[in-house]
Amino acid sequence: MKRPLIEVRNLRYRYDDDGAPALNGVDFRLFEGESVALLGPNGSGKTTFMLHLNGLLSGEGDIEVGGLPLNRRNLPAIRRKIGLVFQESESQLFMPTVLEDVAFGPINRGLDREAAIKRALDALKRVGMEQASARAPYHLSAGEQKRVAIAGILATDPEILALDEPTTFLDPPGQSDLAELLASLPQAKIIVTHNIPFALALCDRAVFFQNGAIAAEGPVADVARRFGWDFALSRSNTRS
């Protein structure tokens, strides 16, 4: 049997402020080439789970990424394997120009400036934003910022992309363009989303979080129907 890229066993986490359990025994696997949607209501643990995968949060349980146990010694290597795209792209964009922003990650990981710039330009071309390389990130639209944030992650050459609510602030054409872009990328993907049509367009399967645990997993449409999210499926079918 093929070894998973990510394996999570019995992951548990409580927030310090009130001690309430945010994750309550989560088991999860991601395999090479897969795209998996993390569905569930607000506060069900989806983003908390995702932030554990590269050590931004640390709970109880076991996490392996690319065969490496998640611990302090392996953390730098694991963070090179997982590229995390936050819900609000502007939080990842802080340099004066788009090109400098996308080159920041490779430079920070030891590439010389010339090689980092080349890698940044290649990443911008992959997301269709090479024409914006000299622009200030804060002058971009929400969809453009999302593409640049993804380019910044791609420039670091990760094996896995983890995206938190990537369609936030995007209009329907922007969501469609983003789904097309992500589908063209070879990396395995974990996508936290409430957007069922987007998940259907992109993901092989879904897991549904409820009260800090995975309540079900399977094909996106089946999971959505089981938990009463099929209104979004009907709306998607009507548009098509």
Could you walk me through the main structural features you see in this protein, from its secondary elements to its overall organization?
There is one protein chain. With 240 residues, the protein is α/β, with parallel strands linked by helices. Helix content is 37%, strand content 24%. It is built from nine helices and ten strands. A six-stranded mixed β-sheet has the order 6-7-8-3-9-10, sandwiched between helices. It has a four-stranded antiparallel β-sheet with strand order 2-1-4-5, with helices on one face. It is globular and about 45 Å long.
Which features characterize this protein?
9 helices; disordered C terminus; 10 strands; 4-stranded antiparallel β-sheet; 6-stranded mixed β-sheet; 240 residues; alpha/beta
